[in-house]
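Look over this today:
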Amino acid sequence: MRKGIYFMMMGLIGMVGCQRNTSYTIINRTENFSSINGKCHVEYNYPLLLQGKGDTVSLALTGIRGIEEFERFIQRFSEGDSALSVHVNYEVLTEDDTLISIEYLTKMEGHALNIYHSVTIDPRNMKRYSLNDLFTGDFMGVIREHVQNYTQQNRVDMDFITFEQEAASAPKNFTITPEYLQLYIGAEGEFHGYHRLKIPLKELSLKQGSPNLPK
């Protein structure tokens, strides 16, 4: 029986990384629960954003999405398994007053692929960024070249036309690091990806008025 993941808080585990000069603090939470009619055990680590005024916001998995979608996602991979063990971990890649970028990694027993989710948001209003919010010029042309090279070299199937139509203006599965734009690809039509593709930020033009990306 599934337990309410947003409401079953298992306790404060510790701070994530070093203290930053920001108007918020990121706190780690760990929960253990059973899912899929008790068949599936999940160890679920995710961050809480503690704002300066004392409010907390869950940044679980893809941020604002409901856990029911994650349950359906797990169920697809658990078919036929009597006891599936799932581990969800995350890493804060960028953290400042205008941008938080978090990579989530889900590993499932018996499932060889890494499964990536992400959230890149403005901590002031919790708005999820799109690529169009951050970059200007022919940034999709740069992305296209990297994606085509990666998919050809690694034999990854990807419908780039659909990706290109949706990725510019809609929040997609990407993160920002001090050196790279990271895309998570290989699962079109989904909110996750199986491959991490790194594109150097120096190859992209930053949009005027966008957040200060890492230098």
In short: The longest helix spans residues 139-154. The longest strand covers residues 24-35.
